[in-house]
Write a structure and sequence with these properties.
Layout: E1 2-7, E2 11-18, E3 21-29, H1 36-49, E4 59-64, H2 70-81, E5 86-87, E6 97-98, H3 108-120, E7 126-131, E8 134-140, E9 145-153, H4 155-164, H5 185-213, E10 219-223, E11 238-239, H6 243-256
Parallel strand pairs: 1-4, 4-5, 6-9, 7-10, 10-11
Antiparallel strand pairs: 1-2, 2-3, 7-8, 8-9
Helix pairs in contact: 1-2, 3-6
């Protein structure tokens, strides 16, 4: 079995694959720093709690946008699983043609999403929208060219920034809403976050479609923790919340061959 780990600024998103089948997913709040023992013990514990023997893990695939944690991650995998993990980074095989001015600047989570996108939806122009700490938009052509995209603050980060920067606005549950006119402060914030996000998604996907694909409609795919929030908006052709994990699994297979 293969253990895949996407380590972001706020969460560790993990999954276990049996060949191409995702048999387990888990999330953990992450910090900017943790030790190899902390990560190793956590990973073994979460596997056992889900009735998976850690000994059946024979490969590990990692991507992270937090370079400072990579040393601890790798050492934790080596110490607790006796596996030197595959790390998705510049120089490994992805099957993509990176068209960024500086390919080293592209977040590896965005690359993992693109890898999964071209595998799951071959010969399709894609716009992949990832709802994580940041909300990212990535344009990928049917010829497997990664063109670039846009980055905006994520839904939760926007809410936290609003609360932190004001004296009276409360922290609220982020949820789908039906009406733009909130009848309380909490409802007004929920309305603003939800419909404001919809407006940004529509505008950015419209402009990417126009600029990158000459107005030929691409397949628009949502992924990430908050992707299901927009399930009923008809903004997306596909919703695949675990796209980055599938990309890690595909990339590992590609580099193994």
């Amino acid at each position: 079995m293969i253990l895949c780990l996407d380590v972001g600024n706020t969460q560790i998103h993990g999954g276990v694959f049996d060949d191409k089948n995702l048999v387990l997913q888990f999330r953990k709040t992450s910090r900017q720093q943790f030790s190899s023992d902390e990560v190793g013990i956590f990973l073994k514990s979460v596997l056992r709690e889900n009735q998976i023997d850690p000994k059946v893990i024979n490969e590990i695939s990692i991507c992270t946008v937090v370079p400072d944690v990579l040393h601890s991650l790798r050492n934790g995998c080596i110490k607790y699983f006796e596996i030197d993990p595959f790390v998705l980074k510049a120089g490994v095989k992805t099957g993509l043609k990176i068209k960024y001015r500086n390919p080293l600047e592209v977040g590896t989570d965005r690359i993992a999403n693109a890898v999964a996108g071209v595998e799951l939806f071959p010969s399709k122009n894609l716009v992949i929208v990832d709802f994580g700490t940041a909300t990212t938009f990535d344009a990928v052509t049917k010829d497997k060219e990664y063109l670039g995209g846009s980055i905006i603050p994520g839904v939760k980060l926007s809410m936290e920034s609003l609360v932190k920067g004001t004296s009276k606005l409360p922290s609220i549950e982020i949820t789908e809403v039906r009406e733009a006119v909130g009848r309380s402060t909490a409802e007004s914030i929920q309305s603003g976050l939800f419909f404001g996000s919809i407006g940004m998604i529509k505008e950015i996907t419209y402009r990417i479609t126009k600029e990158a694909f000459a107005n030929n409609k691409p397949l628009i795919v949502a992924t990430g923790g908050f992707s299901r929030l927009f399930e009923n908006t008809n903004l997306f052709d596909e919703i695949k919340p675990n796209l980055v994990l599938r990309g890690l699994n595909f990339a590992l297979n590609l580099n193994r061959k």
